[in-house]
Write the structure tokens for this entry.
Amino acid sequence: MYYLKSNYYIRGILFLRLLFIFCFLCGVTLVQAQNAVTVKGTVTSPEGELLIGVSVTVKGDKNIGTVTDMDGHFLLRVPSAKTTLRFSYIGYRDCDVVVGDNKELLVEMTEDIHSLDELVVVGYGTQKKATLTGAVSSVNNSQIITSTNSNLQQNIAGKMAGVKVITNSSEPGAFKSHIDIRGMGEPLVVIDGVVSDMATFNRLSANEIESVSALKDASAAVYGMRAGNGVLLITTKNGKTTGKAKIEYSGTYGWSHQTDLPEMMNAFEWASMINEVGLARYANPKGTYTPEQLEVFRNTPDFDLYSQYIKDFVPQTNHTIGVSGSVGKNQEVNYFINGSYFNEEGMFKSGSMDYERFNFRTNLTAKLGYGLTANVNIGYIKDEKNAPFQDAWNQIKWMWFTPPVNRETNEPLTSIYANGNPDYPAYMGAELNPVINSDSENGGGYKKNKSDRTSIQTSLNWDIPFLKGLSAKFMYNYSRYNALYKGWNPAYTLYTYKDEQYIPKTYMSPSTLVQDVHWATTNGLQLSVNYKRQFGQHTIDVLGLFEQSQNRTEYQGAQRYYTFDLDELAAGNNDKTQVIGASFPDIIRRQGYVGRLNYNFAERYLLELAFRYDGSSMYTGSGQFGLFPGGSVGWRLSEESFFKSIKALSFIDNLKLRASYGVTADDGVAAYQWVSGYTYPSGYYYFGNDKMNAISDRGATNPKLTWIENKLMNFGLDWDMWNGLFGGTVETFVRNRTGIPARRNASIPGVTGMDLPQENLNSTRTSGWEITLTHSNKIGSVKYDFTGNFMYSNTKNIYTERAPSSSSYRNWRENVNNRNSGLWWAMEWGGVITPGMDISTLPNEEGTFQNSILTPGDFYHTDLNGDGYVDGEDIYPFFHKGYPKIQYGFTINLEWNNFDINLHFMGAGKKNVVYSEFLKTPYAFDGSAGALKFHTDRWRQDESGNWIAGTYPRYRDNSYSFNYRDDTWRIMDASYLRLKSVEIGYTIPQRLTRKAGVSHARIFANGFNLLTFSKLKNMDPEYPGWDVDNPETGSDTNWGYVYPTSQNFNIGLNLTF
């Protein structure tokens, strides 16, 4: 009984307690319900693009959340106005916003350029940065558009690890720059998944580019036969789901200024040099010029030929307008339409040089239903360059060729016209009057280059509904290139005023007209199937692809001579010997099969296997097709449980090891070597008085000639720390290159009576390492980030076919096997002879009559082989020539309130040049030409005969080669650091622009090539020398005949409506 009462009592107490808790919870709920608010908002990118699928959650409680819809909108009920919402999206930094009193939020997310979820463009697809196992460098649009250039290569220079960009001229529309990956050579260019060419890439507008990626290792194997030097992937912009049209305008206007033009000697300095050279050679104290003439030269104002020829500032302008958005009930159609105009004038005061370009692109994507998506991408480029007939480098040469004293009248130059009369262009000591020859309207002739490029890509993608993760794609592409060149080189007359008469001299007679037409078409087809699924922690991505293309080109050219000035091909002499014509048709067909498997387990263990079975009509038989496999693996240690359990390593967000191996090829060999034939025309001969074109046999055929094979290895380490505060990559690489074409001359004598065919004989090895570092942070209201990259690469000749030499020294010197390529062979500079020095202790210098003519101010050299003489057998390898072995760049971005600053530096090391001609000696061309002023800083004697030390040796003519040898003194360090670009901008607050319908307005100013730090003087250190296209085999001897470096300054405006 007691037990029952006690039991009821306890139950009653429990009931009362539960009732109390229930009432309390109800009260709390009622209070919370009263405090709860509903918040809505819109999420956009910094450019105003509506972001779809952004995760919106209550910070600390992921059970309360939603995602943005097709219009970037969200609606969410949250506990209170004090709630903090967290916005998360792939490729963007997490953003926390307090609801506060705002019932409608406008959230702008910031891109995270170091995000592990960032998608990186690779061959035929994209991959997450976290699971990427290949060596890939990339830049996005915001990193590309920070400078205004006609050549897109300049926009990426120094910004991509492992990618070298070297500029050889600032001439508008010349595109004289070179790009390579890891020192291996010019890469394959792929634009929106279709193989293109470097000329088209150079001419793209920066505003139509979404990203540029470089495949540097086995990841390039999917491009097979043409990927031997790596691959450059360009992705253009496409339409976004924004819900409404977004109109963007970007415009700049600026000026360029030419730098690095070495000053020339004036009349007095030049005449004194001529006298001094004569005294040194002939011991003739009288000299060529009398003291009276020297005094006249001294008192005559200097005549600055540059000021007659070159503008101080040259205008350039660039305008771009784009429209993007989406239409349809459910935003089914996305569109991007962009047009741009660029114009830049040349440096000539005549106004005869300019470059003009129009770009247009439209990219449309439509969702058709049932998983079908169609895309049309159309690009068009039209450009035109006008210039005088004589190349700019040639005009610089002839300007230096012009002595400041007329050699016929012995009077100082005071005008580009004879006797100052504009009707009579002056003969100035050279066959070109550079000022007159830079003027197309007044005797300089012209070169007109016009071209247009059209590309059309259509594709249909099907996300197959009955099998999740399976998709198929069909793509057809067509491109056409048309180019017209017309060059007119008229005869002209120069005059010398003497004895009150204008004495004429006619040059370039007869007048010449050259006209070329070049066109090319490409048709391509791609069919692919892709399967991508995640099964628990296992993710697979399988690609199968078929691709074929046909490229047809044709060139036709004609040249005709004229005795009168009528620049039309239909006119001219009737004499058939005065007409030259040529035509070169070509067609190449290619076919490839691609397979790739990507697998990862929990984004921890990563694997990629790929291949391409590739064929080309350039070859025959078994050499027509080849298999090019590639593979890579990765291990993210940071995802291992043992790693995460170590508290000391908790600051490391990502740590990944990866390795790759692959085989690629380079089909840059002479095509159709297996076909016998003839070359016509091949020279000429005279039959009586008639000039007849000759024909020659192509030589022996080689059906076994095939592509150059490359085997690539790469090892990399990636890391990210403190939630993106610091990150980086270190990689080392090796490329073994075999089968480089050469003609066999070591085992076959040169008296076979025919041209030997090319064979796959030579081999090289390129190796090196690179590092990338990133840092981003926010201190107070200042946001900043840093990205830097550094690369070292070196190429060694493993085997080079050559015939044996006549001496053991020549055999040693010319045997380049197992030697680094691009070596400078030179004498070792011993020093300069000083007053009182015992010359008898020096080895006998070649050309000095046993040192009997050496005096203070002369150079001497080291007897390296110890035979007592300094001659041609004392030449040894000392320095590297060609493109720099070291290249680096770093970028700094700063944001404070509405201000932003971008600084980009690039530099190079282990780079050398040797000066020649005017840069090497003041007595160029035996004193018949002008001279550069820096040579006046030489060893010389004062009026009392005392020697005064200088930087350069004493004046001598060129027959005394010991002062002008290619020695270690003249091999100059061309390493440099350059402030490549600076941009400062200010974003106008929206409260000031919204009423005008402007959602974003920014004004900015930028500059290009502003500062250079280098030991090299008088010339731009970036210019590699004479042969920009063949840096390792060509000479790095620098004549200095280049269109000078341009410094660019621009002001600009960005508007978004």
